[in-house]
Amino acid sequence: MWRFLMVLTLLAAPAQAATPEQLYQQHCLTCHGSGRMGAMAPALLPQSLDRLRPQQIEQLIRSGRTATQMAGFADRLNEDEIRALTQWLLQPPAQAPKWDAADITASHVIHHQPDPQARLPASIDPLNLFVVVEAGDHHLSVVDGDRFRVLARVPTRYALHGGPKFSPDGRFVYLASRDGWVSQFDLYTQQMVAEVRVALNTRNVAVSSDGRWVLAGNTLPETLVLLDANGLRPVRTLPVCDARGNTSRVSAVYDAAPRNSFVVALKDVPELWEISYDPKAGKIYPAFVHDYKMGEGFALDGYLNPRVTALDGVLDDFFFDPSYRYVFGASRDGRAQVINLDIRRKLVDLPLVGMPHLGSGITFERSGRTLMASPDLKGGQIDVVDLASWQAVAQIKTPGPGFFLRSHERTPYAWTDSMMSKDARDTITLIDKRTLAVVKTLRPRPGRTTAHVEFTRDGRYVLLSVMETPGELLVLDADSGREVASLPMMKPIGKYNVYNKINRSEGTSH
Ligand code: DHE
């Protein structure tokens, strides 16, 4: 009787609701990995999710993501569980995620040894190829820039971001995913050469002008990871922190070719780092060296070690002047400054307002002066600055805030978008570099987000993304804006011309 009563009580008791952690273990762990660090599917850490609103995450869990293996869970999770799981994913894990040198080394994989004899068919100009990042289903397309046809389409790691970087001969492309994967891709054989996971969240990569090194800047953990560019073998990991041990995420790392160095901007600590890869730069320090000899001299402080310029504000993005002596840096709160890399000192504030996107800046000559122009993520304008006087020359109004700006030595026009605008995200604006006036506004696909232009090697055509799923890669005549071709793609984002990149065309990002 006693036993019978107990069974009845158990049956009557409401089932214990599963905790979000248990839901994760049951439904998500196999694909998203233990510790939410990612496996065959992306990491689900707050840093990985910070571009999504909670409602968007709930919707993803409910209905899945088209063109990916992410299925919807509406049939297995109720609305309360979906909400609780979302909130839990947005919190840092109880145990801080770790990704150290041993993890990096263990993740390293060589897929194919490049054949030194490999060549593209003679009919294809290897320097007029484009690499197109398709975010809709995480693929990379290789496009022949003479015939405008796709030569290869390969899957990539989840959420590539930032400009792919090329080896100096243009044969290899280095890609970084937000989830920390760096991949080396061979354009001649259209195969992945090697991959390595350098972090759980990565900002971007740069390739040294001598082709020997790839430097990855990370936000989780806060490190810089140096890789051998030939096969991506990890060489060293530098913790990013100031002399007092305050750690910092990396905002961006770029190659400063004439200086034989990488320059690194930091998001949380007011410092700018320069890391020389010139073997003649001085003695090799065995460990991380934090050098505070600000303004002391012009000598380099060592090979593959950071030397530090102390600033009075952090940098989210930056741009080099053509001499590579000066850095134009900006923070997302709208402060912009000029820094002299040789004397390691901030010189002046730059007269920019809004939220300049200096990483998308271009330079050009006008009436014997070198000008720099960059979009503004908030303002619906292009800011133009004289690089000799550091004075603002013009603010060119566009239909709305945009992300990217491009030009080419051969064309009088600079092309920009308004993709951050509600009403004008389908417009492309052409600015005359001679008059600094808007000459044309194109709307090639009304109602569809259109942005990011790259020129062909000869500057005669532009390739433009209709960033939708499905979307298109449009080819337009660079003078008239007339449509020449359209290639169907899955949310193409950036595209990069080999010649323009390896020759550091003044109209493209570096
Ligand atoms: Fe980017 C480049 C920062 C959001 C697409 N973006 C860069 C670079 C930086 C940067 C520092 C230069 C890296 C390089 O080329 O090596 N991006 C940021 C941000 O801080 C921001 C605003 C917020 C964030 O989420 O990190 C941001 N970026 C986006 C997007 O939402 C875009 C439109 C879509 C996406 O893929 O996430 C986007 N960013 C791009 C692209 C480039 C880029 C296409 C390369 C531009 C180029 O032509 O070189």
Automatic annotation (TrEMBL):
The identity of this protein, by name, is Cytochrome C oxidase Cbb3
Output the PANTHER family linked to this UniProt entry.
DIHYDRO-HEME D1 DEHYDROGENASE, PROTEIN NIRF
UniProt domain Cytochrome c: residue ranges: 15-93
State whether keyword Signal applies.
yes
Q: Where is the signal peptide?
A: 1-17
What Pfam families does the record point to? Cytochrom_D1 (PF02239), Cytochrome_CBB3 (PF13442)
* Native species: Crenobacter caeni
Q: Which InterPro entries match?
A: Cyt_c-like_dom, Cyt_c-like_dom_sf, Cyt_cd1_C_sf, Haem_d1_sf, Host-pathogen_enzymatic-act
Query: What is the phylogenetic placement of the source species in the record?
Result: Bacteria, Pseudomonadati, Pseudomonadota, Betaproteobacteria, Neisseriales
